[in-house]
Amino acid sequence: MNRHSISIPVPLENVCIKDNFWGRYQELIRKEVIPYQWKALNDQIPDAEPSHAIENFRIAAGLSEGEYYGRIFQDSDVYKWLETVAYSLATCPDKELEKRADEVIELIGKAQLDDGYLNTYFIINCLDKRWTNERDKHELYCAGHLIEAAVAYYNATGKRKLLDIACAFADHIDSVFGIGEGKKRGYPGHQEIELALVRLYRVTGNERYLNLSKYFIDERGKQPYYFETEAERRGEKGNNGYFGDYSHKYRQAHLPVREQKVAVGHAVRAVYMYTGMAYVAAETGDKTLVDACRTLWENVTRKQMYITGGIGAQGYGEDFTFDYDLPNDTCYTETCASVGLVFWARSMQELEIDGVYGDIIEKALYNGVLSGISLDGKRYFYVNPLEVWPESCHQRHDKADVATIRQKWFNCACCPPNLARLVASIGGYVYSTGKKTLYTHLYMENTGHASLDGNDVKISQKTNYPWDGNVKIEIEPSCEAEFTVALRIPGWCTGAAVKINGEKIEISKVMDKGYAKLTCFWKRGSVIELDLPMPVRRVQAHPELRENAGKVAIMRGPVVYCLEQVDNSEIIADLALAEDPEFTEKYEKDLLNGIVTIEGKAYRSRLDNWDGKLYRDLEIEKTPVRIKAVPYYAWNNRGEGEMYVWIRQMGL
Ligand code: ZN
After folding, report:
1. Cα gap 293→78, rounded to integer Å
2. What is the spatial distance between Cα 645 and Cα 77, in angstroms, rounded to a whole number?
């Protein structure tokens, strides 16, 4: 399997995270988030949006009476919870949690119909309407999340029950959709099942699932548009659903996928689809799909992505807009979209080795993903702005989506479980193996092992990343052998240095597409010392990105910083960094769970000499002040207040 992959991820169960930074988040997922989300799914959290998701399954299974409640894709919250549980169990066994998950799986099995169909909304409300509105009804989306949960749970526990449920549903879907006689030529209104089916194929070896995924990708965007055909069948001629004429772009169904050159529409749908395309290409070797993925990747990461790894610039449709349109205060940048960007980047690593993919994974993880969760694991952002003036968010309708404090739960609760499943599975993003090569994509303290041509290689990292760029890596093959250890040298880093067993390596001679490739005879006790200097940097945006003209963002290593009101008083927009800000940095262990803070020299205006005027003739007078920046992901953990990532720069 993975017939055309250049490299295959080392599975998360092989990697034990011991990292101060990620270990704490994983513990948070285990101790806070999984139990909290379980309560949320069972409506046991006072003052939070009700979910009803478990109750929907009970009603569908005939174990309870009542009406379906919630969004049409409420089932997916249960599946994402199960997937998170599976990843957690894979690295940290927990009998009680596994028992609870088994009970949920029993319940899901009871709700499934004899023909394999499984969706509580339609089972409870209107079974005769199933598969009549792929545009809006999310049946294939929910099926995709069921499949992902099933694959994860099978990998973690070896238990087949959920996998069998998922296979039965996938078989049913395969009998409904496709090119054969009597089948519907449809595809999902919310992509997700494409990537899930490839994962199901990889675990079962059943080509039917790969072919079905390929069918959904190949069929999408062909004329006549399926969403219009099925709307006519429902007697709704001319109805394109929400977003009207924009409907097809919103769902990336406006063109066949290979003809799509720029990212449009709903950002989460888009990146899930691109991930599915990359997975299918990894299995089939279809160069046209690889090219389409690369073109879209270039567009997203060079023209439509925030410095935080956030994507989806506007609330309308939770959409991509156009090149260089990246407003800081009305952006959408849904947590799920950054999570999906990480999925896509990892799938691209299977197609080609290039440090840019690891760079984007790292960028999204440390910034736009983690900003979605509070440090105590109890509150979440759906929208992740880069600039907040709370009063403006409260008063302006065009900022209605921008919450100024993280929420306990959401009516549309996609983000919290999505973030949880990614963090719980982070170990699966650290390494991959290719031909005689062990790739290290991320730096975090861990011990792991991987098989290279049958040689079991133990690998461990010791580091205090992302606060410190020193990484000590030990390589311990079970038998001495020549192979390559490839270390990603982050795109933000200049002056990286590597030593093997104390001997300095000329890094420029071993660099290849963002990786330092160290080829030698590795034996027990081999030690690599990697030094990634991480001075404070000021980053500017391309001039086309009009929003950020005259501004810089502060970064250190992979971490994007921001200025919060609590450290800098209000009117942060008025601050301007000195030409030489003389930055100082300090590790503050008691602040925001331990962070490196950055202080620097800036100027601000006086407020006391305006005589109540709104405007006056120019008078340049600036008062020097010290600013203090904290990591963007940790903002809004000390109450509501202004926050800015991009700040004015004197002399720019
Ligand atoms: Zn979301």
Report:
1. 30
2. 31
Q: Specify the pTM.
A: 0.97
**Tens of pLDDT along 246-299?**
889 999 999 999 999 999 999 999 999 999 999 999 999 999 999 999 999 999
Q: Which residues are in the CB-under-5-Å shell of ion ligand 1?
A: 334, 336, 414-415
Give me ligand 1 centre to Cα 606, in Å: 41
Task: Give the residue carrying structure tokens 């800081």.
Answer: 328
Instruction: Give me ligand 1 centre to Cα 478, in Å.
Output: 43
Residue 51 alpha carbon to ligand 1 centre in Å = 15
The CB-side HSE value for 366 (13 A sphere, CA atoms) comes to: 23
| Residue 69 CA to ligand 1 centre (angstroms) | 19
Distance 150 CA to ligand 1 centre (A): 21
446-452: strand order across its sheet: 15-17, 446-452, 455-463, 470-477, 526-531, 497-500, 503-505
Q: Tokens 């205090």 appear where?
A: 464
> In the annotation, is 414 catalytic?
yes
235: helix, strand or coil:
coil
* Cα 402 to ligand 1 centre (Å): 14
- Active-site residue among 139, 318, 334, 642? 318
Residue with tokens 């030529």: 185
Choose the weakest-confidence range: 44-48, 265-269, 380-384, 565-569.
Answer: 44-48
For 151-182, the pLDDT digits (tens) are 999 999 999 999 999 999 999 999 999 998 99
**CA-closest candidate to residue 249, choices 327, 332, 318, 338:** 318
- The first and second tokens of residue 212, run together, are 């079905």
CB 218 within 8 A of CB 280: no
Q: How far apart are the first and last CA of the chain?
A: 53
Catalytic one of 142, 414, 415, 562:
414
Question: In which band, very low, low, confident or very high, does the pLDDT at 1 lie, cut at 50, 70 and 90?
Answer: very low
CB-neighbour burial class of residue 496 (10 A; exposed 0-12, middle 13-18, buried 19+): middle
| DSSP output for 466-477 | TT--EEEEEEEE
DSSP E strands, 330-408: 387-388
pLDDT digits (tens, 9 = 90+) for 514-554: 999 999 999 999 999 999 999 999 999 999 999 999 999 99
